[in-house]
Fold these 3 entries.
Entry 1:
Amino acid sequence: MKIAILSRNKKLYSTTALYEAGLKRGHDMHVIDYVRCHMEITSMRPAIFLGSTKLEGFDAVIPRIGATYTFFGCAVVRQFEMMNVYSVNESVAISRSRDKLRSLQLLARKGIGLPVTGFAHDPRTTDALIDQVGGAPLVIKLLEGTQGVGVVLAETRKAAESVIEAFRGLNANILAQEYIKEAGGADIRCLVVGGKVVAAMKRQGKEGEFRSNLHRGGTASIVKITPEERSTAVRAASILGLNVAGVDLLRSNHGAVVMEVNSSPGLEGIETTTGKDIAGMIIDFIEKEVKEKKGTRTKGKG
């Protein structure tokens, strides 16, 4: 098969791992900087170009779309879909997962456990918003944040009011969430591929840090997840329409709650921690899907 990895940097661990896994299985692998692409929006003849080169003949694409370029990246994925190229994660699912509010609403509608979350626009609702999530301490998140950036733990009510006022002064959209104290600054990253949790790790924030992201100095260890946690992760990925996803769970007093679902999960931390060839599993999944000619359901719609 001819497979494209849509990535801005071919030297990133995840991109390299997927590229090498594909080569080992005899595929024709290409890394494409999707931001440098341009598209020809023509009836019945959709096309994508990289410079003067027309990108054609691909059987599948693996989107590794950065949060900064979600809108344009999804447009490129959608164009491939219109060209009947299989995408391991569809453009609609990627944009759905990147919208924190939309994804939480979809998960809540299907009964997935979530931290109590509030969303409001009117500054006069700040007090009600804080009360709604159980008061201080509480977590305040920028809707556009990623990798722990734009996430603040407000330990007092006054601090929460100040942070909310500051974010609103920047005209930013924010969420307020209950602080799951019993999680102890740790979360569980479940890597879902094709409707199965293929690997899981526990991420622990460094001393004094409530965010567990490895990019922020957190540490990772192998963890055994419960059947409930496994089911929650699989269902969360399915509800958002993602074939490959990193589902972040918190262990609360009332069971597993989903913190976030990532459509371009990093592979370095979880492969290193678990010793599993997750990149290879993703390529194997693509082989199976393309062989069965399942294709892209939306064909670029939405």
Entry 2:
Amino acid sequence: MLYLMVRNLVLMVIAVTHKLSPIETVERGFTPLAPLIPGVTISLYTFIYVIVAIGLGILLHEMAHGAVSSRFNVKIKSGGAFALLFLAFGGFVEIDEEELRSRSLAVRLAVYSSGVFMNIVLAYIAVALVGLALLSPQLTQGLLGTTIVYVVNSTDAAFKTGYVITAINGHPIASVYSLISTLVP
């Protein structure tokens, strides 16, 4: 991610100094990065799925720490989760540190690594679900598309603000990035 940001910064400086168009900048390797904005960069339905997935991931990560602690009879003091306006998410399981330190290295490693192990399991499940979605377009039909936010100098009724582009010449459009890659050869 840091590499993309530095490369984009360099390409932006080149684009400004050489007065390149946005298309020419993308052709030189600029990778558009945009925040997830419901209704602009992703549909509202996709945003809801992202929020639920993040919340579920945090919950399962912390539950894994708690389950492994319970399995080895390590006392759990408290636990919880929070969300702040869909911008910040978090969770915790407070394990009795004194009791955990008195356990063997294997038990401590199991408790500490259980959250990461759950993240890996969730990643495999996510990849499998994406694979299923790619095999069955009917499942993702409502999730695909890029919303048109603004139309400049268009008398064509085919493009209006609020319309959703789902495909161009048979190529599915899942996001603004797939739209750019389809439009820029």
Entry 3:
Amino acid sequence: MSERPEVLIGEFARRCRLPVSTLRYYDRIGLLVPAFVDESSGYRRYAAGQLPTAELIWRLRELGVAPQRIARVMAGGVTATEALLAERRRITQELDQGRRHLAELDALLAGDLAMGPIELIELTSRQVVVLPYSARFDDLEAGVTRAIALLRATLREAEQRRAGPWGATFPLDLTDEVEGMVFAPVEGAVAAGLVAATLPACRAASSLHRGSTLALGPVYRAAFDELDRLGEKPCAPVREDYLPLGPERAVGVRVSVPFALA
């Protein structure tokens, strides 16, 4: 390759162990443009120095990195480091989600709903700091998780200490686009710049779920069935409180469906 400064696409593809069609795709999206294109024949020629670039692009593509972020990596310097760190966070989140999905499959295989009994409880009035969220139904869990992460960062920036578990509200009737609030109780007066709200006191049908949030459907169904049995009508919004369980950072979800305001 060093004896031939520029080679046709076929030879270049052979050297970097990629299909010609892949190199044409890289050219089309602007990731790896040939060093020279013959205007009369359309033949693409590549330089030897482009081989490491082709290899890097393929390596990143195999990791699922989007073309726009690959371009940032190729830019080098701080931009490249930030892009790679962002991809590391993405893959870590995917691994966490994969572990949750495996746990859910294990629960399905075992026939275990991990659902506690439905209880009628009194929810006391609470002042909380809130952050609205809006998420597609098919991305609801991730959307709420992102909103809680943003609220956590906001509290940290305001030097406001949390005084209880994270939570979220949901409408009674879910649609393709779901809107609600994530919330957290805080210590002392609410710092400037934070949005405070009061969760009203009410009675609710409630259950503590210790399994995956993907299995919350039966919990809600049981709560609504209990209200039907009592002749009560649910009222919005429903609440979920995310409670730490044990030393292994497991999280339980207390589902509460209000039916009578205090």
